[in-house]
Amino acid sequence: MPKKGGKIPDVAKETQAQCKRPKLDAAGSPSVLSFESPASLFRSLISPVEEEVFFRDYWEQKPLLVQRNDALVAAYYQSLFQLSHLKELCSQGLDYGRDVNVCRCINGKKKVLNKEGRVNYVQLKKDFDQKKATIQFHQPQRFKEELWKIQEKLECYFGSLVGSNVYITPQGSQGLPPHYDDVEVFILQLEGEKHWRLYKPTVPLAREYNVEPEDRIGSPTHEFILKPGDLLYFPRGTIHQADTPHGIPYSTHVTISTYQNNSWGDFLLDAIPGLVFDTAKEDVALRTSIPRQLLMQVNTADCTKKLSSLLRRLADSLENCRELRSSDMKKDFITHRLPPCLGCDSDPLTPGGKLPKLDSKIRLQFRDHAVITVEPDQENADEIHREMVYVYHSLRNRRETHMMGTEDDTASEDGLAQTHGLRFPLSHLDALKQIWSSSTVNVKELNLTSDEEKENLALSLWTECLIEVL
């Protein structure tokens, strides 16, 4: 559970070291990407295509192929993940299904060739060489620091979870049948070459994965060979298949994906319940009872006109709404996203430096790793509906379990993913927004009634490493 705000915790002395930000280990090959900011990372990823052109002409619309023929980019891409890395990774204890899938497309269908339990490298290489099986490595950012750096920055850029899979396919073979995905896809070709065929979507911007039979998809709209250093983007719903050509020993590529369940429809599902609750406080029409036995009727078509009228009232209320709440999507993102990439050998973040006082000037840090939500009080068991402000952050999330579902060991006793953050009275909302929207702010100028509240708010954020004292 989030920690309560407003109380002064036990804190270290002012001589404690600043929050540690160790230097990153050098990558295997000089980076061709800019890690200065999330935006610079994305711009360098799609270079030479301009960011504005990408979102105007390609995003959610059509594929983009960037063929570079650049030895420096190719060397950097290859350093991200190689077939030769598998032996060492298998020694760390990988499991079939969870970490690795072994599969091959045979007669238009995916055949899974997984064994039971732990992955044995000798057996894995045997299936690769003799059965022409594709090795699918799940979420390599858990093991590869450079991919962690890339995906963490992309999560900041998109404000959405970013996952990845590596596919290693031997020559003359194909791992997956024609299919489409429910994610925006960026493919980086790392080793060898891959022959790609893309087809017109049958379900544009699809919300789920689906296999499509060859006789339904028609002729390819795009067909090309990806080589090391090349990048391919295509929107969710794009039907695709890929194989390693004969004469090429094998192909390795990483698929970086984002924007799963991140549509306006998903946002409405998240925001509408809070809007209904708030509007019902003011609008008696939403508090009148539904007809007797409505829930028992098979045909409820008679009530659609009434629902349509109520939805129009909600739309009118929305235009005057000061605060649109989307707490579940925010919490899900911040709970499951990658922590800041501070280096594999870095210690956990700890508060340090000067303690914030009333006359201190403070600055928010790790802005992209924290969100503010307004929710019902999670610690109030009585029937009174009291709202509180929650500040959730990802500074203590575990990279080792990123994108691995609910089976990971970050779950709490009730089976839900663990959240990290703080809890404050609703009266603290404006002061928190003040901190989030300012480059720097003086503690004594925070929008709170008493000096004690101002100092305690700053101290609570400091203990979570969310602010630094200047």
Automatic annotation (TrEMBL):
EC nos: 1.14.11.-
Subcellular location(s) per record: Nucleus, Nucleolus
Cofactor(s) annotated in UniProt: Fe(2+)
GO biological process: one example: ribosome biogenesis
GO molecular function: histone H3K36 demethylase activity; histone H3K4 demethylase activity; iron ion binding; peptidyl-histidine dioxygenase activity
Annotated JmjC domain residues: 139-271
Family annotation (Gene3D superfamilies): 3.90.930.40, Cupin, JmjC domain-containing ribosomal oxygenase (ROX), dimer domain
Catalytic activity, as annotated: L-histidyl-[protein] + 2-oxoglutarate + O2 = (3S)-3-hydroxy-L-histidyl-[protein] + succinate + CO2; L-histidyl-[ribosomal protein uL15] + 2-oxoglutarate + O2 = (3S)-3-hydroxy-L-histidyl-[ribosomal protein uL15] + succinate + CO2
PROSITE patterns in the record: JMJC (PS51184)
Keyword flag DNA-binding: no
Any Pfam family hit: JmjC_2
Location of the region described as Disordered in the Swiss-Prot/TrEMBL record: 1-30
Protein name, per record: Bifunctional lysine-specific demethylase and histidyl-hydroxylase
Organism in which the protein naturally occurs: Cyanoderma ruficeps
